[in-house]
Every structure is written in structure tokens, then in C-alpha cells.
Amino acid sequence: MSEILKEWLTQRLQRSIKWDAEEFGDMMKNGYIIAEVLRSYHVITDEKFYVVRTGNHNEDIKNNWRVLAIWLRDIEINLSDTDLNNVMEGRGSTLLKLFYQLFLHLDKKDRTDFIKQERKMVSGLVEKMTNRFKIGRVAEEKEPIVDDLSKPLLDERQFIEWQRKKTEEVKETYEYMRHKYCKTLARINESQTPLRPSSPQARKLPEKDKKAMDNFGLRYPCTFKNYTYEQLLALEEKSVERKKTLADSEWSNKYLNNLHVKMNKKSDSEEFQRRLSNAVTSSMWDMTVAEEECNLDTELTKKVMKLSQFEKQMCTQIMETKQQARNLVKNRIQGEKEFAEQRAQQFDQFLDNIKEEINLGLVEIDFEKARQNTLHKKLYAEKMKRKRQHYYEICYETTLSLVDYATKFAYFKRLIGDDIPEHFIHEWKMLYFKKQPVFDILDPMENVLKEREEDEEVSPQEEEIIRLELDRQDTLNKGEFEEYHNYTDPWNLDFLIPNFNPESDERKYEKLGIHILGHVVYTLLEMKYPYPPPRPTADLPDFSAKALLRGLPDRSITVAMQSLLNSRKIHVVRLETAINFCLRKFKLEMIGCTDIDLSFDKFMVNTQDDDEKELIRLMKVEDDILNKSNEANFLAISGPIPANVKQTQTPKTIPEEEITLSIAADLGRYAYESLYSGDSLTDHLLAAIIVEYLRNQQDIDGFVIINYPNSYREAQILEETFSGRAPPDEEELNDTDDIYLEESISKHRKIEKDPYIDVRFSKLVSDPHKKKTDKPFESYFSSYLRLKETEDILQELVVWDLTKDNSEFIDRFYATLGINYSMYYEIIDKELLAQICKYIIGDLSMPLQSCDRLFGENILSLLDFPTSDDKRTKSKIVKPEVSNGRSKDKLRRGSKMSRLSLSNDLEIIKEPEVLETVPDEIVSVPEQVMEEENISNSTISFDEVKVLAGEEDWVYGDLPIPETIGPALATCWEGIEKGYIHDMEQLFFAKRLQMNCVIPYTRFIKDKMEQIITLPSCKQDLVNAFQKEYNDFENDWRDINLTKNEWHCRVKELQNRLYNICDERKLNAQNHRQALINDNWTMEELTTMANTYISCLQTELNRAVLTFQTLHDFYFAMIKRSPPNERLSSKELFKIFKESDEASGSKKGGEDKLYRQLKNTFLDLQTKNIEIDFSNNPFNAVIENNVKFALKVIKDINDSYRSLISREYTEIARIVPAAKRKDESTSEESINVEEIFKLNALKCIEEWTMGINGEMFRASLRIMALQYKCYQDMKLFNDNIYRTFIEVQNDINNYYLNEIKSVDRLCKYLQMAVENAKRIPESLILENDTFVIDPNLLQFVPPEAPLEVCKVAETRDFKLSQLARLRSQLKIVAPTGIALQQAFIYSLQDFIFYGKESCQGPFFPDTWKRLDPEQIPKLVYSIFGETAYIDWRDFLIYCLDIRYPTIDELLQIRKAFRCKDLESLELISRDNFMNEVLWFEDDFDPDDKNEQLRKNLVKHFLFELFETSEDVMNYSAFLLAFCKSTNCIEGFATVLSMAVGKKICYILEECEDVVCKLIKLKKYRDDCLACAHKCTQQFLDKVITNVVNTCEGTTIVELEYTEPAPETDKKGKKGKGGKAKKIESTHSARVPKLQKSITSRSKLTQSATDVKTTYICRPCEEETELVEEKVEEKEVVEEEHKSEPQEDPNILYAVSQSVIWNVLNICLPWHFLLLPEEKVTPYLQEVTSVMKRLEKDTDNNDIYVCKFVSDPQICKILHKVKKFAIVNLAEEIQNL
Questions:
Q1: What gap in Å lies between CA 489 and CA 496, rounded to an integer?
Q2: Edge-to-edge strands of the sheet including 823-825?
Q3: What's the CA gap between 504 and 515, in Å, rounded?
Q4: pTM greater than 0.70
Q5: What number of CA atoms fall less than 13 Å from residue 701's CA on the CB side?
Q6: Which residues touch 497 (CB under 8 Å, ≥6 apart)?
Q7: What is the DSSP annotation of 396-454?
Q8: E-strand stretches of 661-773
Q9: Tens digit of pLDDT for each residue in 613-654?
Q10: Are residues 1427 and 1434 in contact, defined by beta-carbon separation less than 8 angstroms?
């Protein structure tokens, strides 16, 4: 198929098409070639063709295919969206399918013709293929000598020939068309004749004759018939005979003449019409021909111009090429002449450049130095600034916390009136250290535990408050649990438990038991969450010697070195040897599959690096030497030939299968590919090659690598490959000094990614295991040698001082590790080589051994070594490196790895394998030393104390646990730990809630009793009655003694009555006090506290039981290797219940006996005012009984487990490994396994015993701590209540005594008045417990005089200086303008009532001083509404008392400001602002200088109020501050108008009609669009179905998969059932279908009566017609009464959501941006929900303002915040 399409496209386009998949897709995806094909078939015109662009940009491709899809649809080729995307992406399969459809449609052929043509091509191809292979001689063509400049033209020779041929064809076509056009013009000119019709003039007949002739003609009409020739002759004869018979008459002649005239007229008219039609036709033809000629000329001109331009360009290029060739010759000659001159000039210029560079370098150095100094100063200044700011923030936060702490302390001090208990102070300190607020966030705090009902809605603010309080309490819970767990204050056992000994055995065993439990827990956690596996080491034997040798100058020396080291079985490794080994392995294993050519010359040509070339050269030398050796050596080095290699023509591996290579061959393949491609061999590859080379060497005890590694990076990779541990990076090491370098190496730890590091952790126990990563880095190699050549070794120092100038970092690194044995040399002779080999094998003992003992007798004399005539006796001095000349003692003190500098220290590095191979005489001294050390160690071991299980040096038993049991036990422990911590924290929280209720309850008791004690009484009434009665008595009778006696008796009666009232009041107060005691609140709270501590004891008991169970499961699974069956169950402790249950003997719901007994005892103690202590506390017995029970349970469990452990110990102790006999086959490994198992099992028994004992002591200690802590808290709780009731009783007594004293004073005063017979004119007051005589005391409070409004108005105006001072002070409080409401209230109170202390006078006018400080919050609330933050600039604007502008004035000023803000930065200078006329300037009197001065000051004040930088103001913020109105909704609309710069309709009544109309239009458009999509989908599905049914496609299978779903087809049939069947049954041409669709569309347009029908697609036509008829009737009725609403272009109805959000974020940031404690504010959610609901009304998600502000939620928000409402400050102050 592709060949046919290729031939077809080549024929149509007249050029070859590349048929590669990628090139074909890239060439065809822009659609340009498809457009050319369509133009060649005249489907599109040239004008349409020029619309298609040739570029491959995405936009061009989309535009091209948007047009091509329409053109293809015209020829019934429909592309789906998927196919269109595939075509635009250049998918070859989709493009091939598209060209196949084009071929079928445009060539009018079906699939049968295509198959026939394809078969014909295949058959012809088969016929031509007579032989499978064709052999023939190929003539070698000599390549012509072509100049490089002519080569591009010759390459395009075929295209040039084709262009010339095409030009000739175009010329011939043009000549033919021109000739044909000329003949057509000549024919047209001949046919042109005058169009004037001849009109013969006939004589006019009289009217009478004309009428008679007409009647005769009607009677005998002329008929025209088709006669034959014979009939015409017969008729002519008849006419002649008739003429003879008839008499000639004038009338008949006239009739005949008239008849001839009519016939002539008729023929003339027909001739005229014919000529007229010919003339019109000729003129139309002329116009058509002219137009075609013009088009032809245009096209021809374009083609000729294109060809001429191309030929011109070709000629120009040819001429330019020739000219360039001439110029090159001239330039070459001229260049040779000038070359000599240029060399001299270049040399001079070179010298000048060097001087200039030196000078410039000095200048740049000075400049860079100055720049660096400046930068350092700036950085230091910025650093100090940030440091000060950081310290300031810390100090500021600390000060705030201290203020809160002091406030809380003072508040509690005032409530309690005595010292604050340590419990509360400790809680506040914890909150301070945990960075939590000291004050309760939620009041009361018990609401945290309140359960919400399902229907109850909680505001986001309440949820946030609850969340913050929960976080605060959670912090306290965690802090208290940490204190409890770590035994810190207030859980310090020394102060909590009496006579506690921290050094006791119980405490020691508790710690050891915790260590055992930590071992169990972390072992289980490691099984469940394993550590990441370490990097594997190289699979090599443990060699005795592993050396690195650098600086060896000659390869021949390595041969002699190998001869010396053969006796020690140490192999010399050269890098080139290892690489060649792997390459030969690869070549050998690829025999029979691929011929591998190891051409080192090609490798050297391909590479560019000099070091790589040197390595390849050495490899080539090594390979040549190896090739010259015999076959046996070759096979020994290369290894045996694999068994599957067979020297036949049959390949050893099928090419389709994968070839399995060995590791060495695989590494050789990588090396071969790298060398072949010219890439360098990576360090990782070289390290792997060395390891694999060593792995393939047999019978060696060590190795030495020659001249590798050469850098620290290579050493890193080599160390990591051999040992699995990489040295630290060079950037991580401190190389300033050897001590620092050594410390950085020892401190370095490799950070590994551990996914379980967060979960492999326990909060209750610590990990007693020693960390594996604590071991510092140690080198894999035993020695590192660096040979450094020098001219005169005598001039070198004995010690090689390593510095950055004379050594590399790798030298200093290995020197720090203590394995660097480098030296200087002049020449390398046999003795020096032997010394080097000694360092390699590790022979560093003293005295030095001879070479014959180390390497064999006479080995040096027999050694084949290159000689030198320049050899001197002082040619070598071994110089061990000591970094920076440090002494041995200093290095020892600084590091544990220093093993250099003196010979007797070099014994440390000897390995055991080396000592075994050395003769006994050589190692005699070290053996003696070793024996002495062993003896000393053994003597020390006898005196050592036995290590207990769990101690630091204890080695834990290591027995395997089944994999299924370990993770399960770990999961169980995680649940135990999580539940324990959670329960304890919740219990501490409950206990803290109870303790926090003490102070409020005591305050409640005091306040209530104070109210009861100070209740009003009738004493004053009795005194007033007595006073009136005495004063009304006649004066004459007062001096009589009998009268005085009577009045004295009445005074005594008054005194008794007053005494009785005082007694009644005292008794009433005591009864209320007793009633509060009888409420048993303290008893209930203490009961709850006791139960809380019992729950703590229960939690500890449960944890102890579960810990016992965990230890049992762990060690039982270790020893028995199976899970245990025994499970423990916890015991429940006894709690105090208020009511008894059915199990008890009392009635259901009755009071519990224990609780009733405790209540009676406690009530008796409170009634008798007995202070409760440890001896008489009734709850102590309950707590103590529970403690004893819990300790007994723990002791019983411990005893049971001890017995179980003893049984297990007995069984293990019986295990006795049998000794191996000669006749038995028992292996040593099985005996060792039994011994190891017994040893580890015995350790596990010890650990198990220590673990349960430690857990018993731990639980006992915890329970005792909880017991005594319960006693302390209950005593603290009760002491506060007891002290409160005692104070209340003292207050009652004191008040009663004062009342009695006041009554006595009153009665004494009355007795004196009676005795002196005087009136009592003074007012006597006997209230509460006081007696007052005050003659000036008023009986009633006089009414306050109303404030004068005029006076307020006079004194309310602020001075601008006062406002400026307020602005400066408020900027300090809140620089951004946004302040906390509470802070603003405090500031106002301070400014109003304490501002007069400053020398500049008060901040506020005198009117403000009348305000009560308690009324300031009301004033702030009335101004700013319900909000947590305020903008103090609004307050200052209110104080200015200037008029607020209208929206027109604001828009005008905004426009003026924007004209001056050319860069649109929303900033304006002071001068421009002052020059602009503002809206309030007209309110000032222009003739009054004071008014004008105030106006200027106001403008300056406003500018500075919104000033962003010096003399620059943000005018947008200034205008937004004045966007206010009496109606807050109008003010909000004003802000929106300011944001968009245009008026906005916000009143729903005014713009409801327009908005409703726009919403209806939007809904109608949406409905039409949905219907159009639906109908289009149905139409496309139907068209695709018809095309599939009508035309045969490429493959039936593909078209079946692309068919629409059957559901769509059924829907289509339901809509147009009859038409669908008709279309499916017909297979006619396409033109009738198009005509039908066109006629149906024309009918639709003719029947449409409304514009809306143009949006309705065809399937919805019937429905829309019905709807339209109804709508038209309604419209007729509405047009009579109401006009259509129209939009006002000067008013906006909708704004974007971003504008609304910007306005809200700028004007109300505290509701939409601030509040950092929560992410989403409630207002944000409400506004978002409203916008989501209203954005559906517009197409672009804009919001109609009138509907937005009419929403109840938005109205509520706007009225609540009061940001957009004008407040009259004078009225608010007047109201207050």
C-alpha cells in the first residue's frame, strides 16, 4: 500500500516524497502537502491554498488543520478529534490512513481497484525475481574531482534539471493557451454585428378595414403545420386554382399585405431578440475571457518570476562561487606575503598583551579586593542587623510572656490572698517554656470536653478556639508525662517518697530491667522495621597485604617487583593488565557470535584525552607482550576456553537470544564500547575491573596496585568498591591541619536514607545497643606508597613535610590514616625495590630483616633489573611521612589511628596472616610481647566483677526469632506503648482540670458569702423611726426625769431589737456556710481525684502485666522458637462509686456504702473545722488498699514467671554437647551450634530474670510515686477549701462584732441626747457594720445636669498638631496601620487620660476627658464594629471632621492622579498631591487665612498618613480610605467603582430588568450551545456510520473499533426514523445528499421568524418552533405596554471575582488575610459560597454587584464590619 501511495503522491506533486516514518510524519503534519494534493484535484482554489502556511509551529499547524478539516469534509472525509491530534503530532499510521482515504475519494476508485493494483505490483515483482541472489560485476566509478565550492550545486543537479524541464512545460502550456485564446478572440470579433433591428414602415389602414381584417383573421386563423415537400406543392397548386376562381379585390390585397407585414414584424422581432442575446452572451464571454486571461497571466507571471528568481539565484551563486575561487587564490598569495609580517607583529603584540594583562591583573586584584571588602562590610552589617532583629524578637516575645506570667500571678494572688501553690506556678512555667499562652484560651476550660449535638452548628471561630485550647492542653499533657516518666519535678522521688534511697538495689535493678526491656523492644522494632542494608563489599579473600603504589616510573620495574613478591604470593596489578584481561574475556566469550576487533590504534584515534591515550598505549604494549608469549601462557592468563565454544560455522548462540556473559566479560564489553566510541573509562568501571581481575587470580595472598589511584576521587571510589564504605567527600574534611583533618575523618558518619527512622523509636525505653555507625572510617588497604623523584636527595629533609604545595590531598588523607609510607628517590635500584616490597608485605618490625629471609636466598643477585651507570651510594633515604612535622607523642594524643614515624610503632599494622607466614625467628619478639599482654589481660580479668545483664558491657543473647512472631510482638508493644501514654496523658488532663477548679470555687464561695453577709437589713428604718419619734416629742417634757427614764428604756428596747437583728444575720450567714459545706462539692471532687489516681494505678498495673507478657513472649519465642500459649489477664482495682449497682445488697440506684461512709466522715471533719492531713484523710485507706493489691498482683506475676524461668534454666542446663568420637560422623559445626545455643539461651535466661525483676521494681516505684502524689494533691486541694471556709467564718464573726459595736455606739449617742434633752438634728446612718453621723450627707443623689451640645461642638475639634502626634504614636504601635482592637483601646485610654503629662500638652481635646475609661471599648465598637483588628487611620480621618466625597468626585480625582502616575505605580509625589484640588477644599473659606492654613495642614496630614516613602504617597490607599457612605452597601459599591474606574449599579431595583435580561440571554446561549453540541455529535455519528456503510475502508477491523456506540445510533433513529432508514438503504452519490441538506437548510431559514432560531440546530427544530410561537404571542402583548430594558454603557453591572477579592483583601485584611492561627476565615468561606452561586449568571464567571450586595450573608458582613459606613464621631461621643 505504501508503494502505491508513494507513486501516486510523486505523480501528483511532481517531486519525490521521503517515506521514512519520522521524516514523513514531520513533513506531513503541517498539512501543506495535503493542501497541494487537494489543489491538484481542483478541490480548492489557489486563494484557499495560499491560506495554508508551511511552518511547523503549533499555532500554524492548528490553523492549517482547522481549514483542512472543512475542505476534507466537503469530499466526505471526516476526521475525529483523536485522529486530528494524531495527525498534528505526526503519527505515521494515522497519516497513512488519511492518504489512503484521499486516494480512494480523489481518484474515484474503491478498495477493489486498490487491491488489484497492489496484487499486480506484487505479481510483477515475483515474476522478476528469478533468482534469490543476483551476482554481477560492479563497475567502479571514479569520483570526479570537484571543488568544494561547486559541490553544493552538483548535489542539487537533479533539482536544477527538473526545474528547467518544468519551465519548458510551463512555456509550452502558456503558448498553447495563448494561441487558443487568440483564435477565440478572432471568432468573437467575426460574430459581432450591429444590433439595430430593421423596422419596415407599412401603410396605415383605416380603422374600419383593420377591424374587419381582424375579425376575418379570427374567423379564419392562420395555422402553421409541418408539411412535406409534396404536400407543399399540392397546396401551391390549389392556391393557384383558387386565385383563378376568386376575383381580385382591393380588400383581399390589403388583407394579404397586412398579413405579410405582421409576419415580417414577427420575424424581425425574433431576429432582434436573437441578436440581442448573442450580444449579451458575447459581452459576458469577453468579461469571462478577460478575467481568465488576467488570472492566467498572474499565475504564469508568478511561476515565471519564481523560476527566474531561482535561476537568477543559481547564476548569482555560480558567479559568486567563481569569484570566491579567484579571491581565494589571490588571498592565498596575499596571505603568504603577509604571514611573515604578521608573525613579527604577533610576537610584539604578544609581549604587549602580556604586559597589559599583568597591569590589568593588578588593577583587577585591587578592584576585587576593594569590592570584597565592601561586600564583607555590607554582609557584616546585614548580619548584625538581622542578629539584632532576631534578639529583639526573642526579647519581645519573652517580655510578653513574662508580662502574661506576672499578670496571671497577680490575678491569682488577688484571688487567693495568700501564697500561690507551687502546682500552678509549675504549670505556668511549663507553658512559658513550651511557648504556649499562660491564660486559658477557652473559658471555661471544661467546654473542651463538651460533646456537640449533631444539629448544633459550631462557628469556625469557636472551632479554632477549641483547637488552640486542645493544643495547649496537649502540650501540658505531654510535658507532665515527660516529667512523670523522667522523675523530674514535681515527680522527684527524693521529695515525693519519704526515706527514698536513690542508690538502693531496687533502683539499680529497675534501670537494668529497663535496659533489658529496651533491648527487647528495639530488637522487635528492628525486625518489623529493618535497617537499610549496607553496601556489599568486594567478594575477595581476606588478603594479608593490600597496597597502593604510586609514582613507579618504568613498567620493567614491575616485573622485578613481581619476582620479589612471588615468594610471598603477592600479585602485582597494573591497570592496563586488568583492562586487557576483561577485554580478552569479552572477545573470547563472543567467539561465534560477533568478531571483536581489539584495535588499540583505533581506540587511540577515537579518544581525545592525553591520559587516555597514554593508558591505551600501555594497554597496547601489554597486549603485544602477551601475544608474543606462548599459547600456554595465553591460556593461563585468559583462562580456559568455555565449553560451549566450538570452532565451526555454527554460531554458539542464536542471534535472537540474549548472550549471557561472565562478569569479567561484561565489564570488558563496557570498556570496549567506551574505547570504541572515544569515551573515557569511568572510575567506577576501573575499580570494578580491578576487583574482577583479582577475583580471577588464584593462589595469591595479597596484591599491590601500581600507579592507581591518582586522585582523591579515584581513591574514594576504589575504597567504596573494595570495602563498601566510602570515605568522606573532600568538601566535608578540614585540611587546614593534620589534627583537624584527623578529627574530621573520625567524626564523619555516612548519612543513609532510613525510611523507618521515625517509627523505629520508643518513647518509654531507650536503645541500649551500641550503634553500628559509631565506627569511624578505616581504609581497606594496608599501605600506601608514593615515590617522588628528586635530583639531589641529600638536599631533601629526612621527614617529608606534607603541605598543599608539595603533596596532593590523597597523600595527606592516607597519612592521616597512618598507612602512608612515601619516600624520595634519585634512581630505583634493587635495594630500594626490596625496601618498597618490605613496606608492601608489611614487614615493619625492628630490627629489620634481611632480604634473603623475606624473599629467598640470593634473590637480589638473580633479579633481572635494569642497570644504571649514574648510580651513587647515597641515592636513597627512606622518609616516612609525618604531617607538618608533628611529633609521635602529639599524633598519639590527637588520634587513635596514627601509626607512623618510628620503627617500633610499625608493628601495629602487622596482620595475623603475615605473622603466620614469617619464620619463627623473625616473629619471636612480637610473640613475647603478645604473651606478656595476654598475661596482663588475664590477670586483670580475674579481678573483674561479674557483668550483670543489662549493664553497658553486657553482650545480649542472640537467638533467632521466627519472622512471623517478631513483627507481631513489635506491633503489640506499639499498641501497649501508645495506649499507656494516651491513658496517662488523659488522666493527667483530668487531674489538672480538677486542680484548676479550686481557685474559681474558692472565689465563688467568698463572693457569695460576702453578698449574704452584707445583705440589707431594717436597722436603719428602726433608727429613723426612733429619731422621728424623739424629735417630735415636746421640748418641755424632755427635762423631766420620768420622761428621760422612759426614753432610756426605749433606747434599751431599740438596742435589744438591733441585737436580735444582728444575731439573726449571723445565724443566717452561718446557715448558708453550712449549706455550702453540705453541698459536698469538695467531697465529690476529691472522690473524682481519687478515682483518677486509681485509674493511673490501673494503667501502671496494666502496663506491668503487658510488659511481663511481652518479655515472656520474646524470650519464650527465642528459646522454644514457637509462640507461647499462656496469656496473662490484668486485675481491676477498686474505685469509689457514688451509687451501688445491682450486685450489691442495697437498692438499685442507691448510694454506695463506701461513698456514704467517706462522705459522712469528710462532712464531719469540715463541720468541725478540722484540717485534713495524712492521718485523718478518709481517702488514704482506699488508695492504700489499691496500692497493696496492685503490688501483690505484680509480685505474684513475678513469682510465677521466676518459677517458669527456673524450669527453663533447668532444661537448658541439661544440654551437654557430646564429644566427637573417631567412629562418629558428627561434624564440628553441629557441636558448635549446640554450644552456641546453650550459651545464648543461658544469657537469655539471665536477661529474662533481670527484665521481670526490673519491671517489678519499676512498677512498684511508679505505684508508690502515684500514691504519695495523690496524697499531696488531695491535701493541696482540700487545704484551699478548708482555708476558704475558715476565712468565711472569720469574716462572719468580724462582721458580727462590728455590727454590735456600731449598735452600741448608736445607743450611746442616743442616751447622751436623751440625757441632755437635746434634739437629734444630724442624720444617723446605720448601714451594714458601720455607724456614721454626717450632717452634710444628702439623702438623694441630685440629678446630673445634661451636657451642653454646643460646648461639645466647640471643644471636639482636634488640632492638627494633636493628630500628628497621635499618628506618630500609633505608627509605633502598628506601623502598617492595622492594630489589634484591644491594643488600640489601651492606647486610647493612655492617650486620653495620661497624655497631659507630656510637655506638648494633651493628645485629645477637653471633651474627650469627660469619657469614662470603661466607655472607650464601647466607643471603639460603635466606630469599627465587631472585629479583632482595626485601621487606626480611619479613626484619624474621623477626627479630621471633613466631608466625604461622592463617587463622581472620587473618580475625577482618581483620573487626575492616574494622569500624573505615568508608570502606573499608584504613587504620587507631595508636590503633585498638594497642587491637586480635593473635594473638601471648597468647604473652607477662601478669605479666612486660618481656614486656608488648616486646609493646607489637612492636606499635608493626609499625605503623611498614607506616605510610603519620603515625599511619595499611595493615592489608591488614600482614596479607598474615603470610600464610605451612610449606607455601608453604597460605600462598598463605591470601593468597587474605585477599583474598576467606572460607576457600578448596585441597587437591585434600578438594574433588575437589565440584569434579568442579561441572565436570560446567557441561559439561552448555554441551552443553544448544549443543543448544538448534542446535535453535532448525533450528526457526526450518523455521517460516520453512513460513510462506513457506503464506502469500503482500509481495514474493516479498524473502522469497527472507531464506530460510535450503538446507543448513539439508536438515539439517532428515534429522532428521524424514516430518514435514517432511507440513508442507510441508499448507496447513491454524494451530490444528491448535499442538495438535500442545502434545500432543508434553506427551508429552515425561510420558515424562521425569530433571530433565536439561528442558534437552534436541526434536531430541535420542531420543539423550537412551538416555543417560538408562544414567545411571539407574549412579545406582542409586552410591546404594547412595556419597552425593552437597555444597558447603560457608562455603568457597570458586573465585575470580576478578582476585583472583589482584591477589595476585600485590601480593605478587610483582618477578616480575609490575617488571623495566622487559622487558614480559612469564616468570612472567606461565606463570600466564596456566595460567589460560587452567583458566578453561573455570566459567561466569564463575573459577579453582578446588585445581586452580590443583596445577598443576606454579604449584607450581614458589611453591616457588621462598619468599614464602608460613615461614622459621626461627635454624635458617638455625645451618646456616650
A1: 9
A2: 570-574, 702-706, 545-550, 783-789, 823-825, 876-877
A3: 17
A4: no
A5: 16
A6: 1264, 1265, 1268
A7: HHHHHHHHHHHHHHHHHHHHHSSPPPHHHHHHHHHHHHTT--SS-SSSSGGGGGPPPPS
A8: 702-706
A9: 888 888 888 888 877 764 445 444 444 444 444 444 444 444
A10: no
